[in-house]
Amino acid sequence: MREAPIVIVRDLVKTFAARGASLRAVDGVSFDVGQGETLGLVGESGSGKSTTGRILVGLEAATSGSIRLFDQEISPASGKAALRAVRRRLQFVFQDPQNSLNPRMRAQDAIAEPLDVAGGLSRAARNDRVRELLEMVGLPRSCGDRFPHEFSGGQRQRIGIARALALKPEFIVCDEPVSSLDVSMQAQIVNLLLDLQERLGLSYLFIAHDLAVVRSISARVAVMYAGSIVEIAPRHELYTSPRHPYTQALLAAIPRVKPNKARAAVVTGELPSQIDTVPGCTFHPRCPFAFERCRAEKPKLREIAPSHLAACHLHDVPA
Amino acid sequence: MAQQTLLSVENLTVQFRGDAGWVNAVEGVDFAVRAGECLGIVGESGSGKSVSALSILKLHGRANTRYASGTIRYGGHDLLTVSQRRLRQVRGGEIAMIFQDPMSSLNPVLSIADQIMEPLRQHQGLSARAARRRAVELLEMVRISDASRRIDDYPHRLSGGMRQRVMIAIAVACRPKLLIADEPTTALDVTIQSQILELLRELQREIGMSVILITHDLGVVAEFAQRVVVMYAGRVVESAAVPALFERPVHPYTEGLIRAVPDPDADVSRLATIPGNIPDPSTPIAGCRFNPRCSEAVKSCRTEPPALADAGAGHFARCPPRIAAGRTA
Predict the structure, then answer these.
(1) Using CA atoms, how far apart are residues B285 and A239, in angstroms rounded to an integer?
(2) Which of A80, A175, B158, B197 has its CA 20 to 30 A from that of B184?
(3) Mean pLDDT on A37-48
């Protein structure tokens, strides 16, 4: 039996106003993240995965739904005050370290900024902590006085991670942390995140569009499409027996270095631009298995095998 | 399958003006494309893969670029020295190009119709009516539904995948002999990427054109190309047929790169890495450019610039120790 989750998200909804109409970017998302666990959140552009992560760390406000972080209820009603109480235990690593670091701030000051804001450390203790953080992320202790442009992309992402670690968080939302990096750098950063998790007992929500990277880092994986989670399962289960046709299509579409003969067919069509106007299952216009009910009724996420949930009428066995 | 060489790049060195004088962006690059084949050029940032490809049509800004050595043989001429007039005929006519970001390569204030008709009128001298008719056919050819209506749309009305389809329609309008595709699917979602690659494969067969596919994605090369050139820090380090390269890579960099790709079909946790960082093109490195990151580097690797040598069966690699040790294809 797993420990009580440290993150519990229920029925999260985020609506944006777009050209007079409203757009549901996140449409009823629910999931948990356990202590020391990594939940991978995958999806393509417009799936709502990044918005979900941004709501969790308070960069966006949810329209409705509930979030419990470390047993503390964070809802639109409780607002920023409640979030402030848990904020130190929660951090964010951004996709592009090029744009998320201030180009005029030395690495040591970027890393120390959260410490400075939180206050309470002497100058010497602060500088010691910065050197310790640099070492933790695999950078030389002496490189703190350099500016972001003097580092490579992979090294800048290490600085972004050191900054996120400064206040000893327990949970980190990583939003596409390796997708702007070259393959050889990407592998180094994934391994660093795994090492830090082991050492510090961190929990991650790892948001990415790359299913292969997600498989290497996650314990469980949730797949999002058009604002909703369509499938969620332990990683081995999700990759070896995907049950939602969208997950199957996504896995089939990855170009492989090693050929995989058991692949599903390439899916046609594109994500609908006005999600709200698609009745029933949002994937049905692209789904090779769609039938009458898919066009009329939105399927609910339900358990189809132990710990394996999918939102698909194909797997709805009538009682 | 036709095997004669359509275009060959020989000993190409391209220099960019930097803060401290001219810097070699690529050095001594050799590769050839055969008629009807797809050649993949793969490499990470700064490898020189795009620089090499843009040089084929001399698309670098003239003020800050120097073609310090080399020839680009095509149709009995050297594209680096032909007249501007001849080069304009080749560009967009016989050799076409598509880029990573279709939004910034399409003109936002011109309709799709205007942009597809331009090469048809320019290179084929079609009348406005004939060009429009042909443009609709081309949009149908790249599987854009409702083409006769979509043709009057402006680029912002289209999704990223649709825009790339339009770019492809423009590129193949004059039935080119060679299409240079520079990271054509990098900005696209994975399900759209597979649609675009499938489309390119079909068009390649229909038109009988050759394709140079530039990408950082080894999986894309493995599935789409017949032969592949691997570049690192401005140099070609290995070239081979696709199956040989992926099954028996000779160069330690190629081997490391293939192993570093996360496998979507295995529950692996720690990924294989290549230590160190990708060098900046201006960094002087004696000997093999990869030696500071190579676990097998010997003394000569740090002093002697290695040559691209034959490892057998059309497989070339720039690693004398491995070739001498018989790590051959």
Answers:
(1) 43
(2) A175
(3) 94
Per-residue pLDDT of A7-39, as tens digits, reads 999 999 999 887 777 788 999 999 999 999 999
Q: Which of A152, A157, A254 to mutate to test the interface with B (most CBs of B within 10 A)?
A: A254
Say whether A313 sits in a helix, a strand or coil: helix
Q: Are strands A220-225 and A38-42 parallel, antiparallel or unpaired?
A: parallel
Q: Are residues A216 and A298 in the same domain?
A: yes
- Domain range for B113 is 5-232
**Prediction pTM value:** 0.92
Q: Could you tell me the residue range of the domain that residue A175 belongs to?
A: 7-89+169-315
Q: Are A62 and A14 within 8 A, CB to CB?
A: yes
Q: Which residue in chain B is spatially nearest to A263 when comparing CA positions?
A: B265
Cβ-in-10-Å burial (0-12, 13-18, 19+) of B89 comes to middle
Length of chain A: 319
Number of domain units in chain A: 2
pLDDT digits (tens, 9 = 90+) for A116-148: 998 889 999 999 999 999 999 999 999 999 999
Task: Tell whether A1 is covered by a domain.
Answer: no
Residue A307 burial by Cβ neighbours in a 10 Å radius (0-12, 13-18, 19+): exposed
Residue B249 token pair: 């890579």
A67 and A32 together in one domain: yes
CA B70 to chain centroid: 18
Nearest alpha-carbon partner for B101 in B50, B153, B152, B57: B50
Given 3-state DSSP classes, what are the helix, strand and coil percentages for chain A, each rounded to the nearest 5? 40, 25, 40
- Residue of A252, A256, A239 whose CA lies nearest to A288: A252
ipTM of this model?
A: 0.88
Does B273 lie at the interface with A, CB-CB under 8 angstroms? Answer: yes
Chain A, chain B: beta-carbon pairs less than 8 Å apart: 128
Counting every residue written for chain B, the total comes to 329
Residue B319: both structure tokens together: 């690693």
Ranges of residues in chain B whose predicted pLDDT is under 50:
1-2, 328-329
Q: What is the CATH number of the domain that holds A27?
A: 3.40.50.300
Tell me the two tokens of residue B197. Answer: 């690659």
Q: Is the pLDDT of residue A266 over 80?
A: no
Task: Tell whether the model's pLDDT for residue A276 goes beyond 70.
Answer: no
Residues A162 and A177 reside in one and the same domain: no
Task: Give the domain-ending residue among A137, A167, A197.
Answer: A167
B230 contact A CB<8A: no
Q: Of A211, A253, A260, which has the smallest distance from its Cβ to B193's Cβ?
A: A253
Inter-chain CB proximity B265 and A190 less than 8 Å: no
